[in-house]
Amino acid sequence: MEITPAAGSDHEIPEHLFMCSKLYLAAFRGYTDEVCSLLAGSSGAAVEPANSSPSPAAQEHANHQGPCSIREVTAELRTLLHIAAGQGHDDLIAELCLHDSSLLSSASSSGDTPLHCAARAGHALAVRAISLLAGASVEEDRVREVVRSKNAAGDTALHLAARHGHGKAVEELMEVAPETASELNGAGVSPLYLAVMSRSVRAVRAIISCRNASAAGPNSQNALHAAVLQCSDFQQIFTRVN
Question: From the centroid of its chain, how far is CA 155?
């Protein structure tokens, strides 16, 4: 399975595939019925979220012509699944994948997949849902392809969850594909190093459970060096492992 941009570069997005504001807002708020209605061709009522506004792309293309499509994207090539994953809307994630499972491997202009979005935001249940849905695919080893995919910065979903200290999301990712603990990003940094720097004991424990976890950090540093500067809890964890 190949991780590919949702619709080419932003200069190549056909007008009818720019995401309309109604669809964007419904997905952002997790209104599954509203999204399904719009995709089915019903006009639906405009959704006004209390503490959010549509993206510039959604505002620009508010007057969407014709029925909405599940393949519509924002100017950053984010699909409906990216939006749902980033907000942790599990029911909507399942519904979208039921209609088009290829969205699982769609990449934004920065190379983020929906799993990257869920991991960055720390939505552990969304991480689990995406992993399970990928595993249900008929494509062999698709779940590992999704979990191990890297964005433009070379980050896997595990890198993002670890960087932001999302311990539960890290646990979910390690359960599905523990081998990603050995992956380095474009800067040569490991998830373990990022977990230590985030000061998340839960994330560190989950990653260090993998024997092959890399400890690499920037400028010849490693996770143990960082642990010494962080807190005694980390030092105790590394001492027990060693």
Answer: 11
CATH at 110: 1.25.40.20
Identify which of 197, 186, 198 has the alpha carbon closest to the alpha carbon of residue 150. 186
Check whether residue 130 and residue 228 sit in a common domain: no
* pLDDT-based confidence at residue 225 (cuts at 50, 70, 90): low
Q: What 3-state DSSP class applies to 216?
A: strand
Task: State pLDDT tens for residues 95-152.
Answer: 999 999 999 999 999 999 999 999 999 999 999 999 999 988 656 577 888 999 999 9
For the record, the structure tokens of 1 come out as 């399975």
Nearest residue to 127 via CA among 77, 83, 86, 183: 86
Residue 225 CB: number of other CB atoms within 10 A?
15
Residues 233 and 126 in one domain: no
Number of separate domains in the chain: 2
Q: Which domain, by its residues, includes 103? A: 1-152
